[in-house]
Write a structure and sequence with these properties.
Strand content of chain A: 35-45%
Radius of gyration of chain B: 32 Å
Number of domains of chain B: 1
Strand order of the largest sheet of chain B: 1-2-3
Order of helices and strands of chain B: HEEE
Helix content of chain A: 10-25%
Helix content of chain B: 40-55%
Number of helices of chain A: 5
Distance between the termini of chain B: 117 Å
Largest sheet of chain A: 6 strands, mixed
Oligomer: heterodimer
Shape of chain A: globular
Structural class of chain A: mainly beta
Radius of gyration of chain A: 27 Å
Number of strands of chain A: 34
Number of strands of chain B: 3
Chain lengths: ~525, ~120
Amino acid sequence: MNFFVHGKFMGWLMVIAAIGFCSDLVASQSEEIQLTGQHNAAGWHLNTAGQYQWVSDKEGAVYLAQHEAFCQQPRPDLLVRSPMVPTPMHPIFLSNEQGVLRWWSKGGSSQQIWSDGGSSKQQAPEGPALISNQLAVITSPEPTTQLQVVWPEPQLQRYSAVDLSEPTKPKSLWQWQPTMMGSVQTPVVATFKTITGSQTAVITVSGRDAAQPAFWLIDAKTGQMIASQLYSRSKKTVELPFILQDITAAPAVLDRNADGYIDRIYLVDLHGRLVQVDVTEQMQFQSRVVADLSDAGARFEVQLVTSRSLLPDPQLTEHGAEASALSVSVSKDPQKLTEGAGSLGQAADLLVLVSTKQDQSRLWLLTIPDSPAFTIQTHHLTKRDLSVDDSGQLKGSAKAVPTGWYADLPALPVSLPQIFAGVLYLPVAATSDTCAGARQATQLIARHVFEGTSVYDPTDLASIPTPFGALAALQRSSGELALQDSHSGTLLLPQLQGIRADCRFCTVPLHQQDYPKWHHRAIYQHESEIYR
Amino acid sequence: MKSKGFVLIVCLCFIALVSSMALSGLLIGLLSQKIGVAGQLQLQQLQRAKQLHLQQLGPQNNLVAQGESAVCPAELATWSTPVTRCRWIVVSSQHEQLTGWSSLMLATELQIPQEAL
């Protein structure tokens, strides 16, 4: 009996052990699948001699293991859909985490580059700084299709460039490390018109704790410095009657005359002084402070977003009862063309900024006219409450042509704001993840770009499937334009709205059949007829 | 006798002067009327030609964007991402007996991905 009981007990023990062994086996296999499945650890290692060495999965895994905070699932910092991206990888996801560049396509395994050397004295970006893109992409069709990525390496305090035209065979292009630099920040790419032709450059800012606030233009092909601008920490000038603090936010660039070349750069210092820098063909800079938001007491560390826009007609009413001469589109009534010809609204630069003060983030939208009469300050702006549905009317509460508006955000943004057809979109999330979840939003802010009023019904915004990633416009098979999550392809808003030129707060559903939009810009009599 | 002849000559000169003034006034009036009518006709023709040209630009004629693609200039409903491309097109019209007109048109096209079917 005793033997029988013992035998039964041993039998149960063996069954339990077998189950335990099997479950361990399954768990270890699933772990292995997770590690080596979509995002493996293989990649390239740039040694101190500046050469790439292929590193196997095992060696890569050792490297990853040395960095406990390193994300196993890379954070999708940028999605590049350009036709210049090689077909097998199109569209390509890019990530820069602690200076390790990773790239992958949907369903494919990730590849990565990291560099030798450096110390860990400089911390990787966290919190608000993560909202920025973390890297810059250059695509060029001529003479051969090229995809180039420039990214900062915080631990080595330098910028690196790689040619990913063949993503499976990356080519190191250059590394650049300036003197007098504080911390490396997100670089921005811009093509400038020069006396000799054109020049594609990478713009970098001086970062935290720099000797002087500054920015540099680096040749995108060679990594050589083209031009630089240093600002004094002690002396005020007539042109720049402000002493700038550290510049950590990545700049924004503008093409004001639509010739395809950048002619204006916007920078913001840590305290919120917005600097407008005009670039000449001789690569000379003219700087002026156009806004001073320092009285808000917030930190401006997030990459700037800008767009060139026409300002709305100040005579517009809430219901659009008075038609605006701003409407320059060709209408069915040909007589309208004569009204529209040459009657364009005043052009201005739109600047979108995100600031943080302790745990509170704030969204700012400024309109900078071509000849600003004053330096914009917080009291010139209208405050908006994002928790209120003010899509109706705010009669008399806002200025005729607003200088801008600001609003406190319910949570930290997960990526940069975007403007689609005059509506500003900003994805925010309550959590503060640094890995793949850092780009996952739980709430969408959508506001009229000039008025700051809500555009969509709150129930529509609340019904968006969460979490969602980067936003993109999509043309539906029915012709309507929709908003989608560009990472997963999920439809977020089935009908995209655009602002209207004839009504102050109104929006209109966007449809593919509205395009191409025809604008009548000039009419003239044949010269031969005049002098006959 | 001599004085009578002198008066006659003066009268004749005066009559000739007055009649020449009247005639020239009539002639100028006639010419200005003709010029005015001609100018009015020309203006009407210009207006007509312009109207026909503008009708040609109407959406019902389905203009096709052909010109060289360019960066889009500023617009009210702005986009921060480069999803719009623009083309400049010169549209000319020449009607019989009417003055020719040309227009510089800008076509804004949208380049966004389509939904997968």
